[in-house]
Design a protein that fits this description.
The protein is mostly helical. The chain is 80% helix and 0% strand. It has one domain.
């Protein structure tokens, strides 16, 4: 395994842990401050539906700015994580052809 691939994998693993922590904090905040919103996602919580709410900026309607900021941070982080995964795929494809 070359060093750039090892760095990519370490960064992706770290980002995944951070994303899980942010998601947990966001869901915890919804559970405490807006239980009616969280109940709309079902039990157990449909995380894909929560992500959809974040992508569509529907969490801005809560008017609870700490929750809105946490949701924005999570959405931004997930976007960056997806871009990082895409760059890893491109890296693997490029190195696969070059090698």
């Amino acid at each position: 395994m070359n060093s750039s691939l090892a760095i990519f994998l370490a960064v992706i693993a770290l980002c995944a842990l951070i994303a899980l922590a942010l998601q947990r904090a966001f869901l915890s905040r919804l559970r405490k401050q807006h239980p009616e919103v969280l109940a709309a996602f079902g039990q157990p919580v449909n995380v894909r539906a929560v992500w959809g709410m974040l992508w569509r900026h529907e969490h801005h309607a809560l008017k609870d700015w700490p929750t809105v900021l946490l949701g924005d941070l999570l959405r931004t982080f997930l976007t960056g994580f997806i871009l990082l995964l895409i760059s890893l795929i491109i890296h693997l494809l490029y190195n696969g052809r070059a090698g």
